Input
Amino acid sequence: MNGSIGLIIAAMFLDPASSVVDPGHGSPRIVHDAMRQDADPWPGRPNPPLYRGDPRGYTVGLSVDFGTERFLMAGGAVIMDIATIDTAMVADLRGLEASVRINGVPVSTPREIEGDPASGRQRVTLRLPEGEVTAAISTRATWPAIAFNVAVDEQAASQVTWPREWPESVRPFLSATDLIQSDDEIFKAFIERTTEGRLRRTPIYIAAKELVRSTILEFRNVEGSSLRREGEGRIVGFQLQGAAAATSAIQVTPADMVCTCVAVLRAAGIPARPVIGIHSGDGRSGDSKRPKGRRTFCCWAEFHLPGAGWVPFDPFEMRGQGLRQANISRPWRWFGSIDTMNRRVGIAYDFAPFNQGRVLGYPAGWVYRLESSDPIIGFGLPITTIQMIGRGPVRP
Output
């Protein structure tokens, strides 16, 4: 099974690498193909000074359950914008398995996969049958993915200069969105105050570190979880106030921190995005604030380093790491170099693709679209269940 998940993705995106990163702590040690045969063949491989290694295979996905007394459907659909290529993750939707059940009985219904996988994201639409339905509607989508650890050569990254213009592929992540209001004046003022007008004279990696640090230090009361749960602990979705509201909120969630960090970076002219993912619950004891031994939804953020790729960081994990006194020229835990990234898989770059439909309750990486003005009757909060099966280390 481990080999098959690697082959299905490698066959789709074969791109031999010239180097990989040797796993471990501290600065990455570059090992050339002549010294190792397990070179990275998967898409999204970053360029120096950003490296990845230690690939692990998974089957991941989401199940969305609508518990209803009466649900009048008229051409409805569940829509997911799924991440396919990233520095820390590769997914292959050719291996997508999807189903729709009405009252527990499978029904035949169209499914659609749109978009170029090489663009980094594709849209999956699961169409629901029309007509009056009682009791319950369930949808499920799973797909194979590979996750990697990530390392950054801090010294080299600190010398990367600002680009004259950003590539077209990353420009969408400079714009404000519903939950990431980067065009709000509060963020422009914050950047001016934090950088004292020296933003463009500071190397972009260092600027991003300082902006993220300053943003995290603004928050005093942060909840331990971002998730809204209903009876028996079932997940409804993420609790979010959005970046602008979070700046004045008494208490925020880790997801609010992610939105705010992304908003600050975008306002500074650095492409950034949230990543909604699943944490396996595995890994070294004490290496994470995530629940040990239990799969869970999680979120983190990324920014784009010119010529290299997407750099991950986790604001929630960075809290309590002595950020205020941290030397900006030294590596920071959970910023850039993260040697447990292969224990989490990103599934989306938006808590909810609002332009594709609407959120029913709390964002959880999908939306519902009703293609008619007919009403929804007796609708309850949908439950989102994460799917994650570890396949172990993967080799080309």
About this structure: DSSP finds seven helices and 21 strands in the chain. The mean pLDDT is 85.
